[in-house]
Amino acid sequence: EPEVTQTPSHQVTQMGQEVILRCVPISNHLYFYWYRQILGQKVEFLVSFYNNEISEKSEIFDDQFSVERPDGSNFTLKIRSTKLEDSAMYFCASSTDLGPEAFFGQGTRLTVV
Amino acid sequence: GNSVTQMEGPVTLSEEAFLTINCTYTATGYPSLFWYVQYPGEGLQLLLKATKADDKGSNKGFEATYRKETTSFHLEKGSVQVSDSAVYFCALSEMNRDDKIIFGKGTRLHILP
Lengths: 113, 113
Fold this sequence. Notes:
The complex is a heterodimer. Chain A is mostly beta strands. Chain A has no helices and eleven strands. In chain A, the strands form two sheets. In chain A, strands 2, 4, 5, 6, 9, 10 and 11 form a seven-stranded mixed beta sheet that branches. The radius of gyration of chain A is 13 Å and the shape is globular. Chain B is mainly beta. Chain B is built from no helices and twelve strands. In chain B, strands 2, 5, 6, 10, 11 and 12 form a six-stranded mixed beta sheet that branches. Chain B has a four-stranded antiparallel beta sheet with strand order 3-9-8-7, with no helix packed on it. In chain B, strands 1-4 form a two-stranded antiparallel sheet. The model of chain B has no long low-confidence stretch (mean pLDDT 93). The A-B interface holds A 31, 33, 35, 41-45, 48, 50, 55-56, 58, 91, 93, 95, 97, 99-107 and B 32, 34, 36, 42-46, 49, 51, 89, 93, 95, 97-106.
């Protein structure tokens, strides 16, 4: 069964460093998303991406964040200068235009020290 | 704005007990409704969905019915198993194909053998 894959599964970085989280969405999907879940809290929407541009972003998604689809398969989230409060589980998701549900990857746990 | 409210956890039950996890929503439009499940150490998996009023979503013995009149989507299972121990998230998405998913805070379920 097709699935969304994310790498790495866990990343530790020093405060102020740049990180890139990588995702390979399901191949025939058209819409791509990033969500995050701070430990013990709710899953929060960060950004949606369609047709090679951002279609919506939340207040969390400030200038420190960017997304890119550098080729036909990868979808990346970059955090330019990480802060302690960026520590969270980051989920990538994708969906088709056939239904409202999104399919999520296993997540990348980002720890900023 | 749109929001989802679900019962606080943790919920602890004995194996074979009946499960209900309450979920209500607020939406400006006519959303699709979901239950996602997060097993320990794993990502978010779609458990079931319903896209219009009175629809019943079902999967793995779990059921939820879209009740527009009470704006509810309660999750039920007649006989829980230890393997059902997980965090359950109620969620909604508006009808636009690329619209974000809004999650509730999650309910941790613990099943005792």
